[in-house]
C-alpha cells in the first residue's frame, strides 16, 4: 500500500517580531533565534573544527565540544531542529476528531490536534494571556482551556473566551488566537515545521513536502513496507544520559557494534551481508537475516531487515512483520529522550504471545544500547578524548550525518 501525504498549512505571516502589547495579526512571534554575538563567534569556531571536505579515509570525527558544549546545543536547536520538517508523533494519536497530543522540541511546546471537521492542526501550546501551557499529555478535547486563568481556544486556534478582561483597552479576540505551526502527515507519521517563513496553502503540495523531508527516498521506503497499513501496537520511551547525536551515531555505525554489544540480535543476522546506501538526507542500512537459524528469529527479522535514518533524528526499522521507529529528542547537551513506536502486520495484531516475546527481544537491545551510549557520553566528557576516526567500510552513514549537520550549522 503506497503512502499518501496530506499537507496542512496554517498561516504564520511574516517573520518580524511581534509586539506583545498591541499585536498585529499579520505578524508572529519569532520563536527561534541564535543567541548573542559572543556565542555566535564561539560556535562558529566549534563548527569549523569539523571539515566535511576531508574524505572519510582521512577524516576525524566532530570534536567533543559538539556533544558537550551548552552554547553549541542551542545553536543546533536553532539551525537543525527549528528548520525543516520534523517528526513529532504518530497518526494513531490523532486518528479521530477531537484527538490531540502535546510535545516539546527544544524550547518549543506544541500541541497537535484533529478538529471537528477532521483537519489536522498544530499550534504553539502556550496561552496568549500569561504563557501558561494549555494542554498536557494526549486525549480528546472539544476546546483548550487554560488551567491558569480560563482563557479558552477552539481546535482551530481561535480565542473563544477571555475571562475578566473588562476595562482592557485595544484588545481584539481575533488577534490573540494560538500561534499556528505548519503540520503534515506522511504514512503513519505526523510532522511539523517550525520555519519562520510560511507558504500559502496553494504553494504546498505532497511532492514538495516529501521532497524536503525524504528526497528521493519516499518511494523506496513506501515500496519496502513503510506505510499506513500496519497496526499500531505500543509506545515506549527512554530518557538517556547522552547527547542526542551519540544515539544517532550508535545507530549509524553500519552494524559495527552489533556482534560485540547485541549478541542475541547478531545471531539472527548475516552481518557480512551488511550494505549501506546514502541519499540526500536519508541513509539506509540493510542486512540479510540468518535463515539457518530458528523459524522464530526468521519470522521476526524477515528476509532482509532495513534500517532507515532520516536526518536529523528519526529512524525507521522494517523487519519481517514489524516496523518500529526511533525518535531522538534533544533534552540538553548531555541528555535525550528516545521514543519508540511499534507497528505490526495486521494479521498478527491479536497474537499476544508473539507480540510480548518480540517486544522483550527489542527491550534487550534498547537496554544494551543505552549502556553503550551513556558510556560514550562519559568518555566524551573526559579530557583524554578530543576527536576520533571513522571505520571507512562501515561508518559511511555516520560521516554522512555529520556532514549534513555541518551544512545546517553553517547556513
UniProtKB/TrEMBL annotation:
Pinpoint the Rieske domain residues: 85-192
Give one GO molecular function term.
choline monooxygenase activity
Q: Pathway membership of this protein?
A: Amine and polyamine biosynthesis; betaine biosynthesis via choline pathway; betaine aldehyde from choline (monooxygenase route): step 1/1
Taxonomically, the superkingdom here is Eukaryota
Q: What is its EC number?
A: 1.14.15.7
Q: Which cofactor does it need?
A: [2Fe-2S] cluster; Fe cation
The reaction(s) this protein catalyses: choline + 2 reduced [2Fe-2S]-[ferredoxin] + O2 + 2 H(+) = betaine aldehyde hydrate + 2 oxidized [2Fe-2S]-[ferredoxin] + H2O
Q: Which GO terms describe its biological process?
A: glycine betaine biosynthetic process from choline
Places the protein is found: Plastid, Chloroplast stroma
User: CDD domains under this entry?
Assistant: RHO_alpha_C_CMO-like
Which keywords label this protein? 2Fe-2S, Iron, Iron-sulfur, Metal-binding, Oxidoreductase, Transit peptide
The record's Pfam families line, in alphabetical order, gives: Rieske, Ring_hydroxyl_A
One cellular-component annotation, GO: chloroplast stroma
Q: What does this protein do?
A: Catalyzes the first step of the osmoprotectant glycine betaine synthesis.
Q: Which family does it belong to?
A: Belongs to the choline monooxygenase family.
- What name does the UniProt record give this protein? Choline monooxygenase, chloroplastic
Q: Name the species this protein comes from.
A: Lupinus angustifolius
Amino acid at each position: 500500500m503506497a503512502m499518501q501525504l496530506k499537507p496542512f498549512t496554517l498561516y504564520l505571516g511574516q517573520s518580524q517580531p511581534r509586539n506583545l502589547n498591541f499585536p498585529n495579526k499579520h505578524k508572529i512571534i519569532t520563536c527561534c533565534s541564535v543567541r548573542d554575538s559572543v556565542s555566535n563567534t564561539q560556535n562558529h569556531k566549534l563548527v569549523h573544527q569539523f571539515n566535511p571536505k576531508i574524505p572519510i579515509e582521512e577524516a576525524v570525527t566532530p570534536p567533543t565540544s559538539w556533544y558537550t558544549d551548552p552554547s553549541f546545543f542551542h545553536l543546533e536547536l536553532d539551525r537543525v531542529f527549528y528548520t525543516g520538517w520534523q517528526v513529532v508523533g504518530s497518526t494513531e494519536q490523532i486518528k479521530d476528531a477531537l484527538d490531540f497530543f502535546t510535545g516539546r522540541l527544544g524550547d518549543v511546546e506544541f500541541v497537535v490536534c484533529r478538529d471537528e471537521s477532521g483537519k489536522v492542526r498544530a499550534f504553539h501550546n502556550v496561552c496568549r494571556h500569561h504563557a501558561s501551557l494549555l494542554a498536557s499529555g494526549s486525549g480528546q478535547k472539544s476546546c483548550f482551556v487554560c488551567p491558569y486563568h480560563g482563557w479558552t481556544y477552539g481546535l482551530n486556534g481561535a480565542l473563544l473566551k477571555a475571562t475578566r478582561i473588562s476595562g482592557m483597552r485595544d484588545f481584539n479576540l481575533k488577534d490573540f488566537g494560538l500561534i499556528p505551526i505548519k503540520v503534515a502527515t506522511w504514512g503513519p507519521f505526523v510532522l511539523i515545521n517550525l520555519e519562520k517563513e510560511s507558504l500559502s496553502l496553494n504553494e504546498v503540495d505532497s511532492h514538495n513536502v516529501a521532497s524536503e523531508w525524504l528526497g528521493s527516498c519516499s518511494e523506496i521506503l513506501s515500496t519496502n513496507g513503510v506505510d499506513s497499513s500496519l497496526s499500531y501496537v505500543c509506545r515506549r520511551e527512554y530518557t538517556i544520559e547522552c547527547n542526542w547525536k551519540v544515539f544517532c551515531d550508535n545507530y549509524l555505525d553500519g552494524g559495527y557494534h552489533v556482534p560485540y554489544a547485541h549478541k542475541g540480535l547478531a545471531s539472527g543476522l548475516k552481518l557480512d551481508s551488511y550494505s549501506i546506501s546514502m541519499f540526500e538526507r536519508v541513509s539506509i542500512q540493510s542486512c540479510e537475516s540468518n535463515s539457518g537459524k530458528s523459524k522464530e528469529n526468521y519470522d521476526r527479522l524477515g528476509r532482509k531487515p532495513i534500517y532507515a535514518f532520516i536526518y536529523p533524528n528519526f529512524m525507521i526499522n522494517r523487519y519481517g512483520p514489524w516496523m518500529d521507529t526511533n525518535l531522538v529528542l534533544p533534552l540538553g547537551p548531555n541528555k535525550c529522550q528516545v521514543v519508540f513506536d511499534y507497528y505490526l502486520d495486521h494479521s498478527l495484531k491479536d497474537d499476544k504471545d508473539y507480540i510480548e516475546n518480540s517486544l522483550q527481544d527489542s527491550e534487550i537491545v534498547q537496554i544494551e544500547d543505552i549502556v553503550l551510549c551513556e558510556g560514550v557520553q562519559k568518555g566524551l566528557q573526559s579530557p583524554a578524548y578530543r576527536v576520533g576516526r571513522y571505520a571507512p567500510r562501515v561508518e559511511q552513514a555516520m560521516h554522512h550525518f555529520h556532514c549534513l549537520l555541518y551544512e545546517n550549522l553553517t547556513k
